[in-house]
Automatic annotation (TrEMBL):
Alphabetically ordered keywords of this record: Membrane, Transmembrane, Transmembrane helix
Protein name: Gustatory receptor
Membrane-spanning intervals of the chain: 20-40, 148-170, 182-204, 260-277
Amino acid sequence: MRRKRKLLTTTIRRISRIKAFAHGAKINSLVFILCCNPPIYSISMVMTSNITGAAKLYAYGYEVEHPTTQALLVGSQTFLHTIVFPTLTDLVTLLHSTLCLSCYKLITKLTEEVLIIPPEAFGPSKQMDILKRKTRIDNLLEDIQSIFSLPSFFIIAANFSACGTVIGRFMYYDLENFRGRAITDSMILGINAFVCLICILWIAGGLPVHVQKLKEAFYKKAHLRLLILNSTKEPHLKRELIEKPEFIFTACDILSLKRSAILAIFGTLLTYTVLVINTKDQRSHDR
């Protein structure tokens, strides 16, 4: 844990040193919104829930008579719960996504530089410079993978479970029995889990897209130089980049963080929804 914390600090400093952080103002705004989530959620729960029943639930069955004490108990419990999930997981997802976007910014900058360079100037020395800078980016990506491999797995698992929970609530139970607190809780939980899943898979899954653009630009420029200068004595450095195995973020080497995984998750949730509906229909038929 201490090693990863130190590695995270080092990675952030390295990215800050080269001024590669992307969307700084937007990220700060999102952090502020996420930090406001626990108090807003706890207040909404106090206002929409059956305060007496909720206080008894949080007091493990003991009666809490004073209304102010009931409100404080419900508010503090929901506040603490919301800090753990989903606020903490959202902040970790935001940090992971920010570091990924910063690396993508560096890759895009390299790609644009390759596209601008004339073929005559794209000699072995320039190609070697591009490869060295790409290696430094690869080191950053490997550090991000090492830091967030385990957290990303638990984040995906937690948010996937939250989506399943919300679907189960709405599909299995009768909506007439839902109270204001249950509806508010389900909507906030479901929307947050859905957005968090999309963000972590879409952003982390964008790495192959950016790397492929760099490879194509590098190959085309090197190939064009070969055709123009007709020089076969230069080293073929393009192989060092093109033939390198594709790097993909993973969650504990169990789940590959690809954009195609979004469809797989949707398919799983859809299957789960059908099973819940069938179970509900079977229960109604048995009655």
